[in-house]
Amino acid sequence: MGKGLISSNGAGGGGGHGGKGGPGFFNGHLTEGGEEYGNADLPCELGSGGGNSTSGGTTTGGGLIVMGSMEHPLSRLEIFGSMRADGESSKSIMESQNVDVMGGSGGGSGGSLLFFLQTLTLGNNSLLSSSGGHGGQPGGGGGGGGRVHFDWFNIATGDEYVPMAAVNGTILTRGGTGIDDGHDGKDGTLTGKECPKGLFGVFCEECPIGTYKDVNGSSEALCIPCPPEELPHRAAYTFVRGGVTKPSCPYECISDKYHMPHCYTPLEDLIYALGGPWLFGLLLSGLLVLLALVLSVARMKFVGTDEFSGPTPTPHESQIDHSFPFLESLNEVLETNRTEESQSHVHRLYFMGSNTFNQPWHLPHSPPDEITELVYADAFIKFVDEINSLAAYQWWEGSVYSILSLFAYPFAWSWQQWCRKKKFQQLREFVRSEYDHACLRSCRSRALYEGLKDLVGLIISILLLGDFSLMLLTLLQFYSISLGAFLVVLLILPLALLSPLPAGINALFSHGPRRSAGLARVYALWNVTSVVNVVVALIYGSVHYKIQSTSDEGAQNFHALNFSTEESGWWLFPTTLLLCKCVQAPMVDWHIANLEIQDRTLYSKDPAKFWES
Question: Do 567 and 546 meet the contact criterion of CB atoms below 8 Å apart?
């Protein structure tokens, strides 16, 4: 069936079976080898002989060896030695008589080895062979390889899977060698029973790690690579007993410090639990601003309430210069005497009218000559309009007075006195608390300063809270490296990272030059001390990730390189923390000093008097 051909004066072709026989070539003539035949998945045929010359000996194909049966497979087969069904090789040239006239014979093809079994053990140096024979001289073609097939019984899958074969020897189905110009025979077939999902190959082994197989078959091409987009950057595929049968390949994080399923660090777990980096940044910024507003309001309430709200000190109580203009509420005016007035006031405005329903208090819109250069004309007119509007009575108040005057004058008099007192209190409260003194040139500057001072206090509060937040994020980041890294950064100068926030807040809430200066120095000391911890964090991180990026080759090196690439932005938090400390320190120092500046000295013609004090 697969016998090699021969020409009248040419070399013989090799026999075919599992592989095509190699063509013979001699004296310019090419003789084809035998064709393939048989079933690779159930080989039951003998090998074929090679084409022979009339002057040389014939070659025969390999035999058929069957172990076990479909109904009674072998539970275990152990081979320590050789089992052959090889094709015959052609005889030596020395044994041929007419080699000058005829070419050499072709080699016989390999036979069949068929095994029905459950497990196979092929010992060291053992051999299973169904190879083709070599061609004869001159020009004989090699025989084709035979067939070897393992029909496995009861292939276990999943967690119950056990390897089908332990092969330490050699299995051959190669084609025979052609001599001189003769061609080699083609290799035969080595096959196994169709493997279930997750397994592949002749011996039904698990698909390689990182691949899956969801169909039956033995070809390695059926083991498909797992979708790379489903593998986290800090993860590696794991071995699964019985192979992977679904596209969702199992994996594990490359280190215990990362958490499944995304292999995030604790810091990244927090960030992505809150919606990702952008949303986390927005939430953190919003929280910092909110807390800073609370701190600023608390500072203004507990510290700033008594800075400018009290009465003007008399000359006997203070040496502060009063040469610049300011407004006083009506009760303060009533409590001063003429001596104090001459030393504390540039000019005093008097209401026109008698504060009655017919003649309410009012001020003229033109400023007096004495204060023309001290006020803004447009702002003064607006101030007068607000005063006059507030001093005027409602129509119904006068109507009530008129009606009571007709029927019960004592009640009308009491009503008028009550309305006048109420109007007086409204005017006093307006000048004391509500009006921003914008009509006075120096006071407009003071209003701007007050707003700027509060804004700077808010910014400092944000910076202090941002410092604390960045410190926590940095510690969490280094905790993801190791507990040792966390302790080094935190305790190189014990708890220095935790102290700038309470020290800075305490300084902001201080009052009095001496106390503020002392607390500012305490804050500065802790801030400088914490910089040492941040520098240590940067050095430790640089050394750690440098070592990670230069690890040994192999799987561990691959993981380390992957890790270092993903952690290329490790320096972001400590660097931002260091920058925050450098920015907030001078702002706190500057702001603490300005908190103690009294507005009257600040707007004096000689502001150096404050510093001299």
Answer: no
